Amino acid sequence: MLTPVGTGVLRYSYPMGDTPAVCLTQDIPPSFRVRASARATERGDRKGKEKEAENKKGEKEGKKNEGQKQEGKKEGEEEEKGQQDDDSHNDQKDPINILLLGCGDLRKILFTINHDKGRQLDITCCDNERSIIARNTFFLTLLIDMDSQIPLSPSLHDLFPIYYHLYLPPRLASLIASQARKLIDVSDSLQAWHASTYGRGGIRFCDSYSLSRVREIWQSWAPFDGNEEPGVTDVDLKAKFEADLIATREVKTDARVDSTGYGLVYTAVRSAAPAADEDMRHLNDLHQRFWRVGRLLLHDTDADKKGSTQVNPMFVTPDAGRARMHWGLDPLLGFPLAEAYTRTIDEPEGWREAEDVSAPQKVVAVVMEKFAAWCQSFKNAWAKRSVVTRWFVGDAIAFGHTLQGRANGVTVNVHWYRSRHSFRRLEFDGEDYQPGSPTPAPISFMVIDTSNLIDDLGALNVLIATSPLLENNLAAAIYTEMLTRYHRTYQDEADNLLCGPLSTVALLLGLVCVEHSTNTSPYHPSQDAMTYQMIKCEEKELVGLIHQIYKKMFWDDCQEDIIAAMMANLTLAGYGDDGSHERRSNHKLYTPASFAAFLKFLKGRLQVDDWTATVEAILVLIERERRREAHGDSEPVADYTPELRAWLHLFGVYTPLEWRVANNNTHLVPPREERLWQLRTWKKIPPVMCVTVVVPQHKSPVVGRLERDNLAVGMPSFVECAISKPGDDNSCHGFAAVQLGYGWPQHEITRVVITRYAPRLGRTPTVYEFPRILPPPDLPASATIAADIDDFRYEIPSLTPITGPAIPDRNSVELIVSTVRPKDIRATFPSPSWIYPVVLPLPLSSSVTPISWSLPYLPCIDDLPILDIQNLRSSHPSWRRFNLWLNNHIYTLSNWEYEHTEKQPESLQEDLLSPGELSCLQRKQMVRDMIYGFAAAGGRRQNTFAVCLKGDQQKVARMVFFVSCLRLDVANRCVVLDGAVLVRRAETAELIDGLEKALNDCADADDTAPVEAGTWTETEMDTSLRYLHTTPEGIQLWKEILPAYVERCRTWEHDTEKCEYRHRADATGVVTAMDINGEESSVLCSCGKGRLPADNDSVPAKVWEMVKKHLVRVAISPPFGCPFVEEPYVPEEKKIENDPNPRPPPPPPKVVCRNPNSRHKKEECPGGKGKKK
Questions:
Q1: Which of 448, 578, 608, 639 is deepest in the core (most CB within 10 A)?
Q2: pTM of the shown model
Q3: Residue 197: CB partners within 8 Å, gap ≥ 6?
Q4: 197: Cα within 13 Å, side-chain hemisphere
Q5: 122 backbone dihedrals φ, ψ, rounded to 5°
Q6: Cβ-based neighbours of 687, under 8 Å, separated by 6 or more
């Protein structure tokens, strides 16, 4: 209802992922894992002590009862084991609750368990495609039963073909059929499943209908026993699968879906980041091979080709013909592939010895090896009872609103359909969602991942359904992916993603877009304002803001936007002819019910003097909007305003005065003889009713053919209802929020049925307001904050907490929430950073749990691959490719920074840039120099880097970095420097001052220890101190971001009594540096000093012994900017030699003085006499 609905006669299925796997817990501090492990250890110690006491008591009974004691002990152990199995998934006291909407395949779950070992996880998964849920749950049970003593038990190498290959050997097909029959036997009911080994262990279903839908898929797999004889294999399902496969292959050749014009598919290139090569044609070859033969194996023997002829039952579904696998998928898309394109320390020995191992062979080997490791990690987690998965088949939006109902105390249902193509009501009948359940399911989550649902359902719809489900914790996060780009620039994309200014609309939803807000924003958007406070707005300003949001939600219903689009020469297929304008989506994302739900959500978030007057003013602006006009024989233009008023009434947002009067006075109801025949028996007619229309079966094939032709190339058809206006042939009343269902009515009914509520729901679907959470009693905070709305840009530039009835100027503190771009930073700001803030949750309790708010954690940094730079240098082709992709990867300047730095002489940069801009730019260049120096990209390898002031003749180092290795962060597809930092403070000043001399002495004495024993020579290794120069503001910036570099890789716990962070957190909980310009105290707490994983072999042993007790481990990655804030720099295309029509050179950049107060002669400044931009 909140989203437009298609006919549903054909839909794409995604049984394998189309984006690289990510770590779902990468923004959760490691302390959560430490505390969970400590509790588990404590429970284990307690059980051990109880068991030891029992043994001592039994020994006192003497030898006479020895036999009885042994028998009793055995029975006790069996009983304890059985009890452990029964309550195994209850053993998690405080797991990390995760919600996956549009979950797709298992890649995110398996990768997270492998990447962040030791977490206690409770993962709730929702997908509208039942075959995907059936595949996932089936495969997890197969992993659980791998070690059982059965003849068909698979090996780790069999798991990848089972899950990804379209065709299998008869042995594996029989294995799947055997496992399917086993699952069918224990899935007669939800109670039976939860009582089975799988249910007790943690594979749960949210409701019985989801289990029944999944069981139907398993039943279709049971006949596939690897035998080709008729009557044994389900020939009908196999034939449908082959027909769908042929149809999908035909779509791949359609010119409308071929973006390259040559039938090439390079989607897997993003999985190869950061090590993508200049020649990635083999990825297209692997993709085409997969769709041609159904496998990824490169060197199939004749036996393999002859044996792998059975259709993989896990791709077979009773929905064949209606659900078709997307043509762009292949198994490579869900895996990080960078290790196949570079050298690592742990790469297979065969790759080191054989130079003729091709890139496709490495890619396939890496993918299969990684998948086997992920599966083994799940088996280990299952054995430790540290993971629970819950599964639901249905619509993500309805699932989110139903979970909100559970959180609001509704135990029955909240009157939502479980699917957009079904009249079945969504009900949680599983015991996990019942009050007082011994196995309660989570209804609030630390992590919510929505995949790329915003491409099809709309970002506002998704966030309204999910944001209230977040736990009230600064580490809680919603992740979303956007695969379809509709605008030319990223900033335009950001302004239209939420149908308004990104930071402003996110604030209204109670969220903060972290990457957008922390790019270079100088202040922390107060956590108090984001979690539980109401926002007070002026009515006139709020009406203008919401009206602008409405216009972007329904852009195609606005005459002004349509004219602008025509003038810009827009097409639905892409950009205009000149490529200079934006394009719009091929399909709608919102209905009037979406806008009504948005207003209902805001009703609990905003405080205005008169809510009814505010909504009426919004409706007046909407009705005055110029709309499209019908031309010629085109269809009438629909007016959706009546539908909007109806949904505003149903959701409890606003009811017109005439409806309220009619609802309270029965004498206003029309006489019965004047009513429709279905309404003559009604005593009271409500203002809004539901109309159900039955479409005969012989009318549906026409719609089906249209849908199949459009959806095959990504252009779905949507169903709406229109009621003509009497006497007006050019317009009609439109209704976009419709519900479809297929099947035969249970009773003979008429073609049109009028009811008060939608069939089988009994009430209107419930949409909840913004959840009002009271602040903690020991945290002084106001209940309301005032927002000033810019009536020109329609965004909120600042918030003001209201502390009482006194004068606001004396009793308020301004909180900056708008994003500040690098070009807007001025020296008047006390700090140029707020890039990687570290925050303490308020109020400060006895435990210290700092949260790195925008820099992802590396929970198992020691397991990340280490680049083998020495072996890369030994091969010229490998070294050339490495330097190419590394140079592209660590070039992090934005387009604006490139225009104002790279194109300007270095002598003018300080005059053209403000101190804040210059410090941010220098930090990027310093990190790039550190990575370049350690990778020996410019010559000799450098390991030790000192940060000092530019122009300091004495070279006083403020901090020194000791780099140990360069790793691949496979979760974020980037490189990371693993090392340690020595910060200058009172007790380390003398040590740092003598560090350069100590390094030089060791170099003269040849007392170095190379990284790889005997491979780095004196000519290849530079053990001296490399100085990196910056400004005083740059030193301040480095000191502020060091806590985040430390927090992301720490494997230790903060000391609750001695940690300095507790005393340095300001009123908002932000960890700030004390004595930032002096040496009295360190910018880091003392909890991590000397806690290093091992000695750094790249530093002389004598020097390492001197400094290691003062060092703190850090992990430094390239400082990427948010593209929604800074348009990234893209190198221009190289000039083609002998080009008869060469491109004209770009115009010279306009030089503008951006620092008029600096000491330079104004008459000589190329930007003019002190003119501000």
A1: 448
A2: 0.86
A3: 85, 144
A4: 13
A5: -125, 105
A6: 646, 649, 655, 659, 662, 663
